[in-house]
Amino acid sequence: MTFEQLRIFLAVAEREHLTRAAEALRLTPSAVSASIRALEGSYGVELFHRVGRGIELTEAGRLFLPEARSVLARAAGAEALLSDLGGLRRGRLALQASQTIAGHFLPPFMIRFREAHPGVALDLVIGNTETVAAAVIEGEADLGFVEGPVTSQLLAAPVVAEDQLVIVVAPDHPLAAGPVAAADLLAARWILREPGSGTRASFAAGLRETGVAIEALDVVLALPSNEAVLAAVASGGTATAISRAAAAAMIGAGTLAEVAYRLPPRAFRMLRHKERHRTAAAFAFEALVAAGQSARAATASTSTRNSGRVKPETM
User: Fold this and answer.
1) Which three-class secondary structure string do you get for the chain?
2) Which of 8, 71, 113, 253 has fewest C-beta within 10 Å?
3) Homologous superfamily of the 165-264 domain (CATH)
């Protein structure tokens, strides 16, 4: 058994499709098929059912899958450690982030990191708070960035930025007309992000602080992306809660209106495993984010001092 055979097995098992696995691995379908047959033949087991043009794991394949993942993860850890010794001349940094952070917070840091360490491959997978936290726990991501609360004792979760949730509606929606009370929220129809998303969890927490339970809202639809939610709400008749940064362009264009109902700010958090080896690449990226946080804090402090100064009268 070789690492290459394990890598090919894992790609096919996760996609349940030879051609898509071959495309992801940059191999030919025949090479992928031959590797799977060789692995099965070496041990006299069938790892996949071939059903028509489809392929799915057998019971033996399902039992073997976590072992294959474990072996490849350990091999990747060994490679990462050796790459560290090269002083960030090569290596890989795996990031996962929930959608708002991936779309608005992380890109500048990723660009600076690539400029400083061009030999380090930088991967970003976008999910929601729940899936990102799970990826960091399982070692699939070196660092995670989320908007929602994280309770796992395995994770360190320092705050790296602050975000503001806002309620938005189409301009002709009744909630856009003026001040809004809790009863108005309960009378509205809502489109929200899916359960497990940081935006939804933060909205639920913010509502609780204002005396409203999210379970009491009339949620007519849950969608898995900010873009889908915004497009649906812009068509009229519903409301949503979302990051102001995500909705800013549509608010500026007049296709959405911000509702006059203040929600508490929420924290952006960086997740890392407390016990797993931290690569030099992870340390470097953490340092970039920390420097950005310090710069934002200094700017905010200066703005506060300046706003408190009395301007001299003009004669």
Assistant:
1) CCHHHHHHHHHHHHHCCHHHHHHHHCCCHHHHHHHHHHHHHHHCCCCEEEECCEEEECHHHHHHHHHHHHHHHHHHHHHHHHHHHCCCCCEEEEEEEEHHHHHHCHHHHHHHHHHHCCCEEEEEEEECHHHHHHHHHHCCCCEEEECCCCCCCCEECCEEEEECEEEEECCCCHHHHCECCHHHHHHCEEEEECCCCHHHHHHHHHHHHCCCCHHHCEEEEEECCHHHHHHHHHCCCCEEEEEHHHHHHHHHHCCCEECECCCCCEEEEEEEECCCCCCHHHHHHHHHHHHHHHHHHHHHHHHHHHHCCCCCCCC
2) 253
3) Periplasmic binding protein-like II (3.40.190.10)
